[in-house]
Amino acid sequence: MFKYFPHTPNDIKEMLARIGVNSIDDLFGDIDPSLLIDEELNIPNSHTEDELKKEVIKLGEKNSKLISFLGAGSYDVFTPSVCKALTSRQEFLTSYTPYQPEVSQGTLQYIFEFQSMICELTGMDVTNASMYDGATATAEAMFMAVNQTKRNTIILSDTINPNVIEVVKTYARYRDINIVMLESKDYIPQLSDLKVKLNNDVAAVIFSNPNFYGVIENYHEISTLIKENNSLFILNSDPSTLAVLKTPREWGADIACGEAQSLGIPLSFGGPYLGYLATTFKLMRKLPGRICGMTNDVDGKRGFVLTLQAREQHIRREKANSNICSNQSLMALHATIYMSLLGKEGLKEAALRAYNNAHYLEEKLLETNKFSKVTNNPFFKEFVLKYHGDANALHEFLLKHKYLGGLILDNNKILFCATEKRTKTEIDDFAKLVGEAHV
To answer: What kind and span of H or E run contains 74?
Structure first.
């Protein structure tokens, strides 16, 4: 036994038997074996602090920095250095849930500011500040709809990010919620299919804009159909696009949700990220988590408090809207600093730059004569092209040249992305390299 391992071999054996696996290694069965290290690690017994720093620096030099043209839900975005400088301050980095307003005014204020900015971006009336990421925020939106309508079926567009779909399905399974998939054609949800699947048990229909394939969807007729069925309209949106695209409120959405990583949060190997969840005044009390509000203290000075807290720590578990969401306020602070620095015009400029970069990238890739278009639908910062060759071989070729290519879909189709961070030179060099590839 090691000093800090609390479980005996028998404990481990019993736990593995309970969950139905033979060994601890079986728990990692979904990981590609090629990614695992199958050898003894050469770890010395001890280092002085100075020796350890030198070893870490050596390891860091082995990392390859890639220029990314991959999106699919996580984006290589511009992060102002002041974001990290401020969020690293100990009063922010170590703070937790602000239960005591008298000692948490700073935390409560930036949560309030975050809520205000998300409401401006989405056009919704109210939002919270408790979501882990865009996928779980979408699942919580589903719970809100089921709770509000007392219906038990959710229609999901198949143009939503597959990872979000899987998370929503997982959440639904343990609440016995029925999930119905809405089929698409040419990367656009089919209105005719929605008409067939809408019925009196549909609590909500969930869409994504721009969708997983980068396409900008149109919800005029869809929104009307949903309202006529007395169902709720849930829209998962990339908030960085909302400075120039129609807001969820303008489309008639009842609930807006999504992943806010694109608001200046680094990729960080997949997290931590930040979900958002916003809605109308009518559904405000169905929001999970906490909502910060502004008030006045005994001296008449402005102050901030937690106003609504519909979670199990504060009310009976069976009455709680959610029993899982927590305090994700450090990432909310990061996004708030980012939005404050850029301002309304800066957010618009960043969105337009991403839009222009993506369209320029598509143009340059098509000029190589190695791709063909698969759709003429409008897109934002991501798009799909079909490669006239081996997409996997192209991906490996690009990796060797320090580029992270797009996401390979089916039939040699590739989902490319160009954020505001990409430069004309980077795009030109990338397209030139693709043109030279013999794969």
So the answer is: none
